[in-house]
Amino acid sequence: MQNETIKILLADDDSDDRLFFQEAFEEIKIKTIVQTVKDGVELMSYLKSSDQLPHILFLDLNMPRKSGMDCLKEIRRIDRLKDMAIAIYSTSSTEDDIEETFVQGANVYIKKPSDFLVLKKLLSQVISINWQYHSSGLNKSNFMLSL
Amino acid sequence: MNFKAIFNSTVFLKSVFALALIILVFISSFSYFHTLSFTNTSKWVFHSYRVSMELEQLESHIKDAEARQRGFNLTNDSVFVQGYFQALNKVNNSLAKLDRLVAGRLQQRNNLDSLRKLVALRIDLLKNAIEETPEEPLESNKVNLYQLLGKNMMDRIHLHIRSMLFLETVYLKEHEKKYNDQISFAPWLTFLLLFFSLIIFVAAYLKINRNLHILKKANKRLVIISESFQQAEEIGNFSSWQWDLDSKEMIFSDNHYRLLGCRPQSFEPSIENFIDFVHPEDKHVLIEKRDKIISGKQLSAPAFFRIIKKNGDLRYFKSVGKVLTDIQGKKMFIGINRDVTIQYLRSRALEERNHELEQSNKELASFNHIASHDLQEPLRKIQTFISRIAEKEDASLSEKGKEYFLRIQSAATRMRVLIDDLLLFSRSNKAEKNFELQDLNLVLENVKIELAVPIEERKALVYSEELPVLSVIPFQMQQLFVNLISNSLKYGQQDRPPVIHIYCKIIIASEEAVLKSESYKKFYKITVSDNGIGFEKEHAENIFVLFHRLHHLTEYSGTGIGLAICKKIVENHNGYIFAEAELNVGASFIIYLPK
Question: Most buried one in A24, B126, B373, B554, CB count within 10 A?
């Protein structure tokens, strides 16, 4: 995986967060292509029209027009998309949100950190996950990613 | 059913009475028939005497006639003829009498018939003797023949009468025996009758007396109950009323009038008179209920209505009742009215308060959302930008700029702590409470693991007694111990390591002065005690108030939320928390959790 370029897609309505996200990947020494969409509606039309699916989708929960939770549910119902790795990327870390996204089939949950260094570490951890292995042994204790 | 109950039952008493009556009737009728047969017997005895007497007389009359005839034959004097006819008459009379007397007895009648024939023969003979006499005295041999014949016939008559007399004696003896038997039995019968009647009388008297005693006692109790019920009505602000659905007669209790502000029994009890006091808007409620009662239906729900008292006061009433049917099938409605004004107003105030609380809970929830998301979002970005500047632009800042930047950094960090603590506090407020049985010793172990780093840093010692297994909200219990122990670590003395003791024992509420309770409810008293800097006694209460701090930020960091959370958690578990302390000696936090 290290040798090929990893395609990353972020759905987040907050421009600051999109900026941190992109800058973080620029500083990580792994070849990546980062694309961003501004909300759930844009995300779904991108996924449906695009030929090449991203390797990992980072999904914010609180977005206008269509929430991250709704997108998650829809993606898991579409055959072509249902095996895509999805990382929840949210400010919230309430039990309810974590529980619900886990049940709906998200692969990992990241709480947006308030330190750029922490962000970089978390993101590089996510893209170095062996998804096949991670998904088969997924449980509630390793679902929430932290340092 | 035990023996006594059977003895006192109506059916039993009735059957005993019926049995006694049957026995009395039996003995009386027996006695009656006995007397009847006794009278009969004595009649027969008398009858036998009369028959015997008459027979004797008959014989003597015949002899008399014979003597006259003989006298005539000897003297030829006509006086004798006259006497002879008189005697003959008497003989006939006697026979006629005997005829009547023996009418009922076949054997004696047959005997009498033969006797009559014998007598007739004898009289014929006498007649012949007299008729032949007048011309000349009879020849002596002819007289002798007559006499011989007469004597012979007389002997036969005599024998016949004897046999009849004998038969009568046999009858007499028979009846006399019966008579004697009966006369000896009669006093026994009378005695038995008397004795039995006496027993029944005495038993009836005892029973009546006893019942009267019971009745008196019951009556006395009834009076007491009625009195206490009246008092209960006055104290409890309720009243009772009865309505006989057959006679339409109604009874209101005294308090029924008082509740309406009237003197007891000051107006005629009737539904209509009562409805006069009902608030105009509520009259239909009672009219509906009244019609339902009249049609004999049971009332399903209590009635609520307003009453305007005689003095114009507005009161709220609640009324319940039901139709009772007695053994005779008579229907009666029994109702209870209650003045529920105080309760009603209280519950209305409570409802309003509840509504306010719901409102403020909603506000709290929206605050929770603001704190958790909207406030965190910009702060997180500020902190992230701060970390970007610290990493990349630090070198280009002046010394002054660097110092300001550090202050910005620490202010942002403090804001983060505040928001996190506030979130914890609002989480401890959350309505949904999932209680689980939890071993508090395990909870404490987890807390020690969570606080392992600061405990290690301060070289603190934590001792604890055996803690109970309780039904608690697990994460809140953990939070409680984390807050209390980190407080003890934070406010330790500079010169010695913190020593924290956790004690636990079972107490009774009324024995703990601080609980201000009279109840015998049992509580676990868990004390977390340290050797830290303590605080002055006057702060013991307000340290639990939100944002209340005893120290400056420069001395000790803190948000003033931790103990408020502790109080909230303990209250969520229906417990109490208190603080005791002495400045520079140490502080103790005492938690009471219901057993």
Answer: B126
